[in-house]
Write a structure and sequence with these properties.
Layout (H helix, E strand, L loop, with lengths): L3 E5 L1 H5 L3 H12 L6 E6 H5 L3 H13 L2 E7 L8 H4 L4 E4 L1 H4 L6 H16 L3 E4 L5 H9 L4 E2 L10 H14 L2
Parallel strand pairs: 1-2, 2-3, 3-4, 4-5, 5-6
Length: 171
């Protein structure tokens, strides 16, 4: 089963009872925590206070996966993946857009992939829109890829229809 990734805003993360809400939703849906990945932006992690660290620890204790979203933008710190014990770094689409044509973007994406893998984390590239970007990321062994190349955003109902169609076709 593929994990479900959910983006968490700073406001949501800071709400009283956030961890309890997540735990309640897991129990209500029956979803095994290992299949829920919370995407946390670097701006959320910038407020490196005791509350943030304790909430992250509770989420890890529940068994959730944590991803650092938009890694490489803003005031990035190379210590984030280690300090927050994330499971995955997400390369921001800003570095993917001109990846195959711009040496600097390619070098940054390659460096993020290699650094992330050397920390035994997974790496995901956001905003993949064409075959050249996909080929570049495959060459450098990016673990996961998302973007319009595969599908534009769809509604929950449309996703359900597609899954049902695939399962009825035997695919």
């Amino acid at each position: 089963m593929t994990p479900v990734a959910v983006h968490v805003s700073v406001v949501q993360f800071r709400q009283n009872g956030f961890c309890e809400l997540v735990d309640s939703i897991l129990r209500e849906t029956g979803l095994d925590p290992q299949y829920l990945e919370l995407e946390l932006t670097e701006s959320l992690l910038l407020s490196n206070d005791d509350v943030t660290l304790s909430v992250l620890q509770v989420l890890r204790d529940i068994g959730l996966k944590l991803a650092i979203d938009d890694f490489g933008t803003g005031y990035s710190s190379l210590s984030y993946p280690r300090q927050f014990r994330a499971n995955k770094d997400k390369i921001d689409r800003a570095f993917i857009r001109n990846l195959a044509m711009d040496f600097d973007d390619g070098a940054i994406a390659t460096a993020i992939i290699r650094m992330t893998k050397s920390l035994n984390l997974r790496v995901l590239a956001e905003g993949v829109e064409n075959e050249a970007q996909l080929a570049f990321l495959r060459e450098y062994e990016c673990d996961e890829i998302q973007g319009y190349y595969f599908s534009k955003p769809i509604s929950g109902a449309e996703l359900e229809d597609r899954v049902l169609a695939l399962s009825s076709s035997g695919a």
